[in-house]
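Please decode residue identities from the backbone states below.
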């Protein structure tokens, strides 16, 4: 049988694909632009859009499990096609589904959790990959400019998210479960900047922004006002689950969760002057 990965070219989707291949699974990857997917040759890449279920006929055929994202369209708007997508999956005989939590209840997650599928919800906290947003400034000035630099985060490696999805999609015992996925340690912005500095061989300093300065920067970058407000809220008072190490990753994977120090070494070239 085949495992279907939606959002297959995204930060997490690529990791899910890779981890499934490592397990010897056949993978079908759904993406809006198959010609630009850049996935391994053994992956069956198909074109399609979760916001347009009528164009997905046959995509679920022969599929044993599906990894689903909860957003689509512009600005990561929640998918409104959950009931139709779940009906198509059930009609095709799909058995399992993982749902990548999108920050709140969504129509797709509600549809999956109310279905006959063996579902698992994955709730990752801050992605380590989010630190790539700092890369241009670090390359240019060796500086990270952030509000609330003492804020705490149990950020998780995206590879661990993909690995947990692969486990839930291919092994028994995860139906009806919701897993909070974190890294193995709690870090401040100062900690993360120091780790990147060690990885690139050149220090990185932290410049603290006021809430007003950060808001103006985000607005200038095109963020909607509700997004600006959300960031100020979570950065100023990080939810407990976002700053608490959870044992789900090591329990699922049988190994320690990956550390940010490891992530920084893997991506050191992205923070080096002259590299895009």
């Amino acid at each position: 049988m085949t495992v279907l990965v939606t959002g297959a070219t995204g930060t997490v989707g690529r990791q899910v694909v890779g981890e499934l291949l490592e397990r010897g699974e056949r993978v079908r990857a759904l993406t809006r632009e198959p010609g630009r997917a850049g996935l391994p040759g053994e992956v069956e890449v198909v074109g399609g859009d979760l916001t347009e279920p009528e164009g997905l006929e046959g995509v679920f055929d022969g599929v044993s499990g599906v990894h689903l994202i909860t957003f689509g369209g512009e600005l990561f708007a929640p998918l409104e096609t959950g009931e139709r997508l779940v009906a198509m999956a059930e009609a095709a005989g799909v058995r399992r589904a993982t749902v990548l939590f999108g920050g709140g209840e969504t129509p797709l997650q509600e549809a999956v959790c109310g279905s006959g599928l063996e579902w698992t919800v994955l709730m990752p906290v801050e992605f380590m990959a989010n630190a790539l947003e700092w890369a241009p400034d670090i390359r240019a000035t060796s500086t990270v400019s952030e509000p609330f630099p003492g804020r705490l985060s149990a950020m998780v490696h995206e590879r661990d998210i993909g690995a947990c999805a692969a486990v839930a999609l291919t092994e028994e015992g995860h139906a009806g479960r919701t897993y909070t996925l974190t890294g193995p340690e709690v870090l401040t912005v100062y900690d993360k900047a120091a780790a990147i500095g060690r990885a690139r061989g050149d220090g990185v300093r932290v410049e603290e922004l006021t809430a007003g300065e950060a808001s103006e920067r985000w607005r200038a970058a095109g963020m909607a006002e509700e997004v600006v407000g959300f960031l100020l809220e979570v950065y100023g008072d990080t939810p407990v689950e976002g700053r608490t190490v959870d044992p789900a990753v090591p329990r699922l994977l049988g190994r320690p969760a990956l550390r940010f120090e490891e992530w920084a070494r893997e991506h050191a070239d992205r923070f080096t002057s002259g590299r895009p």
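Observation: The mean pLDDT is 95.
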